[in-house]
Specification:
Keywords: Ribonucleoprotein, Ribosomal protein, RNA-binding, rRNA-binding. It holds the Pfam family KOW. Part of the 50S ribosomal subunit. It comes from Lactobacillus kefiranofaciens. The protein is mostly beta strands and 77 residues long. The chain is 5% helix and 44% strand. It is built from one helix and seven strands. The strands form two sheets. It has a five-stranded antiparallel sheet, with no helix packed on it. It has a two-stranded antiparallel sheet with strand order 4-5. It is elongated and about 45 Å long.
């Protein structure tokens, strides 16, 4: 896979097209990546010992690796 954890990438397709962020995790078997600040999803949490009130938690979802491109140091400047 061409993307590694910590790389700065730009989304080239999908609802978050044009956004930039760093790669948080990579799933090689499914060919998917999680990018910070991209593809935000909301999950409903039941109350538990760690989260007494429960509620809606927002986090990043994974996107297919073909929808991102690595930003080189030259393009970043």
């Amino acid at each position: 896979m061409f993307v590694k954890i910590g790389d700065k990438v730009k989304v080239i397709a999908g609802k978050d097209k044009g956004k930039e962020g760093t790669v948080l995790s990579v799933n090689v078997k499914k060919n998917r990546v999680v990018v910070k600040g991209v593809n935000k999803i909301k999950k409903h949490q039941k109350p538990s010992q760690t989260n007494a009130n429960g509620g809606v938690v927002e986090s990043e979802g994974s996107i297919h690796a073909s929808n991102v491109k690595v930003i080189s140091k030259k393009e970043d400047k």
